[in-house]
Amino acid sequence: MNQAFYVPTKVVMGDGCIQKNRGLLAQMGKTALIVTGAHSAKKNGSLQDITDTLTLNGQSYKVFDKVMSNPTIACVYEGAAYAKEIGADFLMAAGGGSIMDAGKAIALLARQDIPEEKLFSGNYKKDVLPMAFVPTTAGTGSEVTPFSILTNDKAKTKTSIATPLLFPTLALLDGKYMQNLPHRTTANTAVDALSHCIEGVLSNKASTITDCLATEGIRLVASCFDDIKKDTLSLNQRTDLLIASMLGGMVIANTGTAAVHAMGYSLTYFKHIDHGLANGLLMGRFLALMEKDCSGRIGLILSNLKLPSVSAFTELLAELLEKPQGLTEEEVNQYARLAMRAKNMANCLVMPKEEDLRKILKESL
Amino acid sequence: MNQAFYVPTKVVMGDGCIQKNRGLLAQMGKTALIVTGAHSAKKNGSLQDITDTLTLNGQSYKVFDKVMSNPTIACVYEGAAYAKEIGADFLMAAGGGSIMDAGKAIALLARQDIPEEKLFSGNYKKDVLPMAFVPTTAGTGSEVTPFSILTNDKAKTKTSIATPLLFPTLALLDGKYMQNLPHRTTANTAVDALSHCIEGVLSNKASTITDCLATEGIRLVASCFDDIKKDTLSLNQRTDLLIASMLGGMVIANTGTAAVHAMGYSLTYFKHIDHGLANGLLMGRFLALMEKDCSGRIGLILSNLKLPSVSAFTELLAELLEKPQGLTEEEVNQYARLAMRAKNMANCLVMPKEEDLRKILKESL
Fold first, then answer.
1. What is the 8-class DSSP label of residue B180?
2. Do B212 and A208 touch (CB under 8 A)?
3. How does pLDDT run across B282-302, given as a tens digit for each residue?
4. What CA–CA distances, in Å, run from B298 to A33, B138, B223, B293, B315?
5. What kind of architecture, by CATH, is found in domain B182-364?
């Protein structure tokens, strides 16, 4: 078993953790670019806590609040230009995966001129703005990964910039920013965190450490299933989901994601299906496929989910998620073909065939 | 629960991992100081693998092989002077905890002039030689911790330099270097790894992540108890112990050690009792003390040890370890007093009284 493991991000957590760790923020620079979406960081209080703390520290800042869901390449170049304009020497982001992923690309592009055609090349200078991230959904784990996943219109999918340079310096986790998340967002993001843990267990790069973290993440999400469904999560449960999301991030930082994500990107790109939802729709049937060749690994997942079978898991996901319209045969064929080409497929413990992916896509939606 | 977690060291593992990761070593510098003890790194093949790989990379090196068990302050100043003399721009270490701990202090002192009276101050410039470590015992986990523990004759104990600067850049783990370890060393170091995991569970800084890693470490060591006792460990089991040791290191990097280590330092300093053995002798009775106030945590430890009671654990340790001569009443009093002053005590989930420590010391030896 491969035992490589690397997550250089410092994680701090707890109520008021932005303010309590202001000393760590003070070390990061003089002028911050704060990356957010248009609304949520203002509503949930995270932006206020950040700006109050930076002000207290005597640090200046500007806010770039133009990041949309599934951020585009144009958006991150615009953010980087703004970072340069204001002379930002560090970057903060408050938001979900889209915000943090955009923040990472902005941090990279603010310090080096990379033409668009080389953005996903993997060849970068060792120069990036230091980053401190505040996740406000519990799904992506982007605060502890080296990935920035962007909408890539040329490749007609989502593509990741993947480099250890993109590990944030600091992750600041406070469950209170998630207390007013819409029900659908809560469910979809929790399933996203779960998918990271599950794909990590089914990765050919799984190790003792990633298995530890992944199974704990699975247990934490599973312990919240009932209250996710009923939208009755307590602050403690929100915090557990935030931990699960971070654990999932640490897992995929080392294992990568696999076929579920590879297929899910098409559902998001072409059908505008939320990322976590896309993964959740596909996960049950992917596990059923893997069960033949990886029964031990599937058993590990099910025992931590406290579920008797893959079909019970598929049913549970169906209860948690809103199923969108089905796909045409042409769409199924196209998405399976695109998925087979995705980088993520190299992480599969057992490599699915294109016809397997067609079957999963067809039956899942 | 506190959820801070930080281990920036990159861990790679497997058969031939020094050679296979020579690209990572190539990035570290031009001239290495290789820190070892007098004999073991030569016998177990690790030094040869390092020098072969550096030569293949076109990197130059010199060997400093003067580190003794429980390294002295004089030794690390001597090593640092040698590092400066040869113009080392990175440091490798191959050995057990003593070697790695000395290596860290040498890496620090090679880059900044710190007078002896300020060596343990915690105030250092951000400047240290990059380090790549090859552990050749499975106990200390020093390859993933920010601690350098040195023999401090002024304080009549072992004292740690503790700073995030001391996290090695790279840990290279290969179980084959441990195949010919003496039986006593194997047992004592395995118990040391176990003590890190157990003290981590009983720390007031324990978190979801450290609990995950600690309980896995406990399970791995427990799965080897029989073969440690019989000295019949396979290479796979050696590898499991090396993983357990690394997990224990990641745990104490975040939780610190506690009362067992605080007391153990006196047994090592005054009675020359091996560090792992010292911890092992004291651990059973420390758990018995903690059981009153922390029964849930003790239950977590016992369930992962697959043992029914603390007394069963104490008996098992007695079978694994060689018990030295008892202590005089004067020694018991002195060691308890010194332990109460140790920095480690601040990490105890429940603070023992000095009379508790006297009782543990008296009954354990």
1. T
2. no
3. 999 999 999 999 999 999 999
4. 47, 24, 18, 9, 16
5. Up-down Bundle (1.20)
Q: Answer whether residue A57 shows pLDDT above 80.
A: yes
The pLDDT, as a whole number, for residue B158 is: 87
CB contact under 8 A, B11 and A12: no
Structure tokens at B355: 């009379």
pLDDT of residue B155: 84
Q: Is the pLDDT of residue B19 over 80?
A: yes
Q: What percent of chain A has pLDDT over 90?
A: 96
Question: In CATH, what class is A10-177?
Answer: alpha beta
Chain A residue closest in CA terms to B216: A212
Same fold, B10-177 and B182-364: no
Domains of chain B, by residue range, sit at 10-177, 182-364
Residues in chain A: 365
The C-alpha atoms of residue B138 and residue A1 are separated, in whole angstroms, by 18
Q: Cβ contacts (< 8 Å) between B7 and chain A: which residues?
A: 7
- Do the Cβ atoms of B7 and B144 come closer than 8 Å? yes
Question: Region A218-243: what's the mean pLDDT?
Answer: 97
Facing residue for A216 by CB, picked from B6, B212, B243: B212
> A3–B11: do the CB atoms touch at under 8 Å?
yes
Residue B146: pLDDT over 60: yes
A-B contacts at Cβ under 8 angstroms: 64
Confidence of residue A157 (pLDDT cuts 50, 70, 90): confident
Interface test with B, best of A7, A27, A209, A237 (most B CBs within 10 A): A209
Q: How far is B14 from chain A, CA to nearest CA, in Å?
A: 7
pTM for this model (two decimals):
0.95
Report how far residue B135's alpha carbon sits from residue B149's, in angstroms, rounded to the nearest whole number. Answer: 16
- CB B42: neighbour CB atoms within 10 A? 15
At residue B306, does pLDDT exceed 70? Answer: yes
Order the strands of the A170-173 sheet from edge to edge: A60-64, A31-35, A90-95, A131-135, A170-173, A5-13, B5-13, B170-173, B131-135, B90-95, B31-35, B60-64
| CB within 8 Å: B212 and A213 | yes
